[in-house]
Amino acid sequence: MKIIRNIFFVVLISLFSVSTYAEMSEEEIIKGRKSLFSKNYRTAKRVDILSKDLEFEDAKKYMLVMKKNYEDLLNYFPENTKEGFGTQSLPTIWENKDEFNALMQKSADDLIQLANLIEDADDIRGTLKKYMWKNCNACHSKFRKPH
Predict the structure, then answer these.
(1) Where are the domains of the chain?
(2) CA dist 75 to 33, 37, 81, 115, 116, Å?
(3) Are the beta carbons of 40 and 71 closer than 8 angstroms?
């Protein structure tokens, strides 16, 4: 029943997601991806806190939101959005597009694994690091300008 409820939650989110990038300006695309990454960071902090407080059901809902955002991000890096509008993206995204896309998909897939493992984890902090924070760090170190 929990799985069905979580799937329903993701489907609902999908219905309200943004338009495809083909219908958006370069500025809208860049601002959209920045917004998705910011939402994922805020959501990851929420997942971290909820998991450490043993509030796993709520944490899992947020994990599914993050998963959807990572999948959406696959469409937010067309060739015409390499520069401008305060982008923090490095050219390595477009030079290594398959690697970047694989990391976004891995991040999404790892969140599903995290949702399945977190309740039974002996080391919650280590599990969060392995399935969530490690992917964030991998992306920032190779595909984002230092800040």
Answers:
(1) 26-143
(2) 9, 13, 11, 24, 27
(3) no
Whole-angstrom Cα distance, residue 63 to residue 59? 6
Give residue-wise pLDDT tens across range 51-66: 999 999 999 999 999 9
Instruction: Tell me the C-alpha distance between 49 and 100, whole Å.
Output: 28
Here the tokens at position 102 are: 């694989």
List 89's β-bridge partners, or say none. Answer: 144
Q: Model-level pTM?
A: 0.82
Rounded CA separation 109/135 (Å) = 11
Residue 54: count of CB within 10 angstroms of its CB: 10
CA dihedral 88, 93, 95, 98 (to 10 degrees): 180
Please state the length of the chain.
147
- In three-state secondary structure terms, 134 is helix
**For residue 9, what is the enclosing H or E element?**
helix 2-15
Q: Does domain 26-143 have CATH number 1.20.120.10?
A: yes
